[in-house]
Amino acid sequence: MRSPKTVISAAVLTTGLLLGAPAAAQAAAAPQDHSTACRTAVGAALKAEAAYNAAAADLKKQIAAGGHPGTAEESNVANLLTEANSLASTAARVCGHVGPRPHGGMHTGTGSTSQGIAAGETAAGLGLLGAAGAGALALRRRRTGTEA
């Protein structure tokens, strides 16, 4: 027979594992990169995104007011977007992957040829094509005045 001390100890340990394991798994799965390089890269990406958003808003205001922006303004917005995307990519590379990773097989839709050939649709298409050809032939013969 087991002593009450052993039973209580086993119950406490089991409860601790059941409550602690999910928290430990969550902590291990969450990205923990708080390095200086990561913070610097994220800060630069956020600053570049803010600059792009401000330039794009100014361009939209100019257009809404009836203005005609020149190629310099449009080029500036395009360059700021490219820089923001580049810095965001750099931040993702420096900080590591954040968010869920894809898993499983590729799911593509079903195309028209994935189900095989539908004989009824093919016959209907050929019938319409033949009717259009016969109609075109009849109109051409009527216009030229010849009969076969």
Which features does this protein show?
148 residues; 0% strand; 4 helices
Please characterize this protein's 3D structure.
This protein is mostly helical and 148 residues long. Among the domains are: 34-97; 119-148. It contains four helices and no strands. The chain has helices spanning 4-29, 36-64, 71-95, 119-144. Helix 2 (36-64) runs antiparallel to helix 3. It is elongated, with a radius of gyration of 34 Å.
Biggest beta sheet attributes: none
Helical amount: over 70%
**CA-based gyration radius:** 34 Å
- What does the oligomeric state look like here? single chain
Report the β-strand fraction as a percent range: under 5%
Distance between the termini: 111 Å
Order of helices and strands: HHHH
Tally of DSSP helical segments? 4
Secondary structure tally: strands: 0
Low-confidence blocks of residues: 27-31
Structural class: mainly alpha
Put the structure in a nutshell:
With 148 residues, the chain is mainly alpha-helical. Helix content is 72%, strand content 0%.
List the helices and strands and how they pair.
Layout lengths: L3 H26 L6 H29 L6 H25 L23 H26 L4
